[in-house]
Structure formats: C-alpha cells, structure tokens
Amino acid sequence: MAYFFSEPSRTFSEYLLVPGYSSAECIPANVSLKTPVVKYRRGEEPALTMNVPMVSAVMQAVSGEQMGIALAKEGGIAFIYVSQPIEQQAEMVRRVKNYKAGFVISDSNLRLGDTLADVLALKERTGHSTMAVTDDGTGTGKLLGLVTSRDYRVSRMDPATPVSEFMTPAEKIVSAPEGTSLKAANDIIWDHKLNALPIVSAGGHLVSFVFRKDYDSHKGNPLELLDSQKRYVVGAGINSRDYEERVPALVEAGADVLVIDSSEGYSEWQKRTLAWIRSRYGDTVKVGAGNVVDGEGFRFLADCGADFVKVGIGGGSICITRETKGIGRGQATAVIDVAAERDRYFAETGVYVPICADGGIVQDYHITLALAMGADFCMLGRYFSRFDESPTSKVLIGGSYMKEYWGEGSARARNWQRYDLGGAAKLSFEEGVDSYVPYAGKLSDGMATTLSKVRSTMCNCGALTIPELREKAKLTLVSSVSIVEGGAHDVLLKDTTNSGNQRS
C-alpha cells in the first residue's frame, strides 16, 4: 500500500524562532549573510558565493536584465528566464555582464580623420561619452587622444570639425601602465579627479579603461556581487529540452551559474540534462537542479551532479500545482527534510551541496526561518515582481498601483518546456495563475528593509552568520490561536498604510 508520512507537512507560518542569548557583538552591523551557491568539498572554498541569501525566480514576470543588474548590486543573483528564444536570453545575460566591469575593453573608438558628426553618431549607437582616438580606430590601437562630452559643444561647432581639433591629445592624458591593479587604478582616478583612466601598454597601445562610475558604484553598493573581472554575477535558467543548444549560448554569453527550470526535478530528464553538461563541460559549468521536496529527491540530484538543489513544489503564490494535481509538500517540512539529507550526504561524501528554498516565502521573517531550517538561500518570485526592476507593467487598479505577475505554469507564459510531458508541445491544464501584486518601488529600498529584519532576528538568536544561525536556532510550532496573537489585535488601528510586516 502507499507510504504515509507520520507527521503532517507544515508551512513557515506555523513556526517561530525562540530567542537565544545575544552577546554585545550581536548587532545587525556585524551580521554576515554570505552563503555558498554551488557545491564544494570539505576543506575547500565554494567557487561561487553570494553576499545575501536571495535569488530571483526563473520567471518571465520577474527576472529580466534590469533585475539581473539590480539584484547583483545588492549582493544576490537573478536567474534570467528561460521561456524565450535562446539568443534573446543570451543577449540579456550579455547586457548584465557588460553593464559594469573593472577593466573595460573600449568599444567606442575613433580615428584622427573622424569628425564631430562621427562622434555624435558613435555616442548615439553605444551610449558612451568617452571615446578613444587610436591610430587604427580600434580598442587596442596606439592611443592618440581622448574625446569626452566636455571636449565639444554641438551648438557651437561644425559637424565636419575633425576630431584632431578638439580631442585631448595623448601627451596630456593621465594614464596608467599595463599591469596596474584595479585598486591602484582607482586611487589614480581619485587623486586626479578623473572620470576615465586609460590603461596603456609599454608601446603606447590602449589596453582598457577603468571608469570612475564603476568605482562610485562599488562604494555605493558595498555588497555588490562581482566575478573575477569585476562584472556583475548573473544566472540563467535552462530546461530539459533544448539544453544542447541553450547551454553553450549562455556559457558563451558569460552566465555564471545555470539552473534547470522544471516543475519537478526527481526525473530521468534532469539526470540526462546534468549528464550532458558534465560530459561537455566537466565541473566548469555550475548548474542547479530541482525541484524536490524530500531527501530521496535531493540525493538523486546530488548524485547526478547538481551544484545546488531547489526545494519546493506548489508553495509559490501563483502556483496551483497542489490544487490541480495533489502534488507537493508544506515548504517548511520539505526544507527541514532535505537539509537533513544534505547534511548526511556531506558527512558521507565530503561534498556539500547547497539547497535553495523555492516558494512559500510570504513574510520577510520566513526567509530567516528557511535559513534556520537549513536552506542556504531562498528563491523568490512574487517578492521581486513587485519592484520597478521586474520586467512587467505597472498598472493603476482601484486607486493603487500594481504590477502584473503570472506563473510559468499559466497559459500566459506558454512555458510547456518546464513540464516533462513526454514530447507534448502544449499545456494540458494550467499549474499557475495570472495576477497582480502591490507595487513596491525600488528593489534596493525593499531589500534593505527585508535584510535589516533578517539581521535583527539573527541577532536575537545570538547568530552572526548563517551557519551559526542554523546551529543555534530554536524553533517552536505555534497554534492557530497564537498566530492570531502574534499580529495586532484588540485595538483599532489609526493608519495601516505604512505599518505591519512587509509581505515578501
């Protein structure tokens, strides 16, 4: 007969953290939210970590290029949605990777014979106002001068004016030799009040630029997540259908980590996808898999070579898998079960495979609960869909601004590829809805509030790191009556516009 679990599956809202001893050092400013993203062996450092434990969901209504940039600035990772043409997705990844860098190869270059008209046309095409003048018009030619917007006045100059008449010549340019470190380059920028610093070879050829805006950006976003070339870290979704074409395109575009976007991960299809990636790229391409809801599913994907495993089926706010198919598990119970298996797997093999709690995050404190229960990071859809940086429209409904939000299992998404239907090319029924969520402004403001709550709660538990929280956390189940008791009650609220817990 069927197997019955002895305990009911539970959600995050059924638990509370019991405070522990807080030392004088337990203040939010001292809390580190750094967490591993991909697997690593005992005694080694993971190849990829995040500075905050939050990633955005692989969804059309959530993770476009603007979300990729904005979330990397805050220390997390966006997974660019897969339900689009391959080249279109790859181009989104490229734009995130090219948005910011430490040493930038010049892509706006001129020759001495070019004119102001050429300058204006180049600026219109690239959006860049700093242009190198080189002997051959390339980004690696011999540097002859620079043109910036301060060097010309469109209203007062003939468009036919040669570049040589208004550029800043090479001998008057502050530059740095090839091999200069990024820190030293930024010091030169600061000392000389420059907007751009050319890096020049011994032979006088342009190597790259370092820009003040990138330095200022890092100062303003100290947790921003960068790769070894000082570019923003970004992820991308793949499916178990066209991975042989999609994965190479995303790798070439610079994606730092991939994840298989699927309704259910304990399958032969995910095994085949992971096997192909490992046979083609070895361990150089990092890829997560999922979703699963128990230890058995976790171990299957870990043995298949997943770099991290997503946990959760049916817990998303727009997901109706449980009510249409009767498949799923309470998210808190699923995370606890999978985390226990993750720890057993680590003890047996020496390989730590991070887990991602995907779905079921309704309140900000649910993130802290998920981390205390064993999750290494959380994937959120509705939370991020509310912000300016999500790719959906802002609409006015009943006097309030809302953002459109639909599930990948909805008819609107037409994302049949995430459902392993044995060759079917359409959805037989929906597993997601089309909806609206309250507009919440800028992502940076929303995340600042959310993460301040996470840090504060960790301090209440006497923890300054996520592993320490996991070790020290004390969790208690709460009754339905005590859940009511936990909110405002038996009072008449004056104004609820800006009060209460921010719903994630």
From TrEMBL:
Its EC number is 1.1.1.205. Keywords: CBS domain, GMP biosynthesis, Metal-binding, NAD, Oxidoreductase, Potassium, Purine biosynthesis. It catalyses: IMP + NAD(+) + H2O = XMP + NADH + H(+). One of its GO terms (biological process) is GTP biosynthetic process. K(+) binds at residues 314, 316, 319. NAD(+) binds at residues 261-263, 312-314. Residues 167-225 form the CBS domain. CDD domains: CBS_pair_IMPDH, IMPDH. This is IMP dehydrogenase.
